[in-house]
C-alpha cells in the first residue's frame, strides 16, 4: 500500500490508499437531493405513492402485529413545519422535537382492531370528510408504548408526491 498526500488550501493530508476500493465507477449513480417542493412525511415516503393494494398490505401488517391503528389528518399549511415553531426551542440538539408533529386525530385510535377493512373504511370516511387535507395511518405498539409506523394514505390536490425520479438531480 502506498500513502497519498494531497494539499488543499495550504492544508496537507496523508491518507493510506486501500487496494481495490474506489467510488469512481459509482459516481454517476449518486444523486443530489432536490430541496424545492420535495417534502417527505414519515415512514415509506421515500417510495413512489402507495397504491390501494399497498395501503391495504401495510394496514394488514399493522393489525397483524397487534398494533393499534390510528388515523390523523392535517391541512397542508400545518402538515409540516420547517423549524421548531413557537415552542421556544432554538437548538437542533433536541433531536426529534418540533412543533406540529401531532395532527388532529380522526375519531379515536382503533383499539383491538383486527380487521384491516375497518381501517380502510375509516380512511375513506376521513378522506371524504377532509379531501383538502393529508391523511395518514399510524400504528402504535401498546407493549413498547411507541408509534411504530406512520404513512400517508391521501394527499390533497396540488400536493401530490413528486415522482421518485424527480426527487434528486
Describe the fold and architecture:
With 169 residues, the chain is an alpha+beta fold. It has a domain at 52-159: Ribulose bisphosphate carboxylase, small subunit (Ribulose 1,5 Bisphosphate Carboxylase/Oxygenase, 2-Layer Sandwich), CATH 3.30.190. The protein has helices at residues 52-64, 76-79, 116-129; strands spanning 3-8, 11-16, 68-74, 105-106, 134-141, 146-154. Strand 5 (134-141) and strand 6 (146-154) form a beta hairpin. The longest helix is centred in the last third of the chain and has 14 residues, at 116-129. The chain is globular. The two termini are 36 Å apart. The relative contact order is 0.21. This is Ribulose bisphosphate carboxylase small subunit, chloroplastic. Keywords: Calvin cycle, Carbon dioxide fixation, Chloroplast, Photorespiration, Photosynthesis, Plastid. It holds the Pfam family RuBisCO_small. It is found in: Plastid, Chloroplast.
Descriptive labels:
single chain; 6 strands; two-stranded antiparallel sheet; alpha+beta; 3 helices; 169 residues; four-stranded antiparallel beta sheet; Ribulose 1,5 Bisphosphate Carboxylase/Oxygenase
Estimate the mean pLDDT confidence.
Answer: 77
> What radius of gyration results from the CA coordinates?
22 Å
Secondary-structure element series = EEHEHEHEE
CATH level-3 fold name of the domain at 52-159: Ribulose 1,5 Bisphosphate Carboxylase/Oxygenase
Q: What is the end-to-end distance?
A: 36 Å
CATH class of the domain at 52-159 reads Alpha Beta
**Structural class based on helices, strands and sheet pairing:** alpha+beta
Low-confidence stretches: 92-98
* Major sheet details: 4 strands, antiparallel
Q: Total helix count?
A: 3
Number of strand segments: 6
Going by CATH, the homologous superfamily of the domain at 52-159 would be: Ribulose bisphosphate carboxylase, small subunit
Going by CATH, the architecture of the domain at 52-159 would be 2-Layer Sandwich
**Helix percentage range:** 10-25%
Shape: globular
Strand order of the largest sheet: 4-3-5-6
DSSP strand (E) fraction? Answer: 15-25%
Subcellular location: Plastid, Chloroplast
GO molecular function: ribulose-bisphosphate carboxylase activity
Main location: plastid
InterPro entries: RuBisCO_ssu, RuBisCO_ssu_dom, RuBisCO_ssu_sf
Amino acid at each position: 500500500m502506498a500513502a497519498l498526500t494531497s494539499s488543499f488550501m495550504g492544508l496537507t493530508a496523508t491518507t493510506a490508499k486501500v487496494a481495490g476500493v474506489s467510488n469512481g465507477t459509482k459516481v454517476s449513480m449518486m444523486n443530489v437531493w432536490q430541496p424545492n417542493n420535495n417534502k417527505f412525511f414519515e415512514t415509506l415516503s421515500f417510495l413512489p405513492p402507495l397504491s390501494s393494494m399497498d395501503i391495504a398490505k401495510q394496514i394488514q401488517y399493522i393489525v397483524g402485529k397487534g398494533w393499534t391503528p390510528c388515523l390523523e389528518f392535517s391541512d397542508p399549511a400545518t402538515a409540516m413545519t420547517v423549524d421548531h415553531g413557537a415552542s421556544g426551542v432554538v437548538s437542533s440538539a433536541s433531536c426529534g422535537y418540533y412543533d406540529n408533529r401531532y395532527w388532529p386525530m380522526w375519531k379515536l385510535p382503533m383499539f383491538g382492531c383486527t380487521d384491516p377493512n375497518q381501517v380502510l373504511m375509516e380512511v375513506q370516511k376521513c378522506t371524504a370528510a377532509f379531501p383538502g387535507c393529508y391523511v395518514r395511518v399510524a400504528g402504535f405498539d401498546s407493549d413498547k408504548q411507541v408509534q411504530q409506523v406512520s404513512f400517508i394514505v391521501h394527499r390533497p390536490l396540488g400536493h401530490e408526491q413528486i415522482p421518485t425520479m424527480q426527487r434528486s438531480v
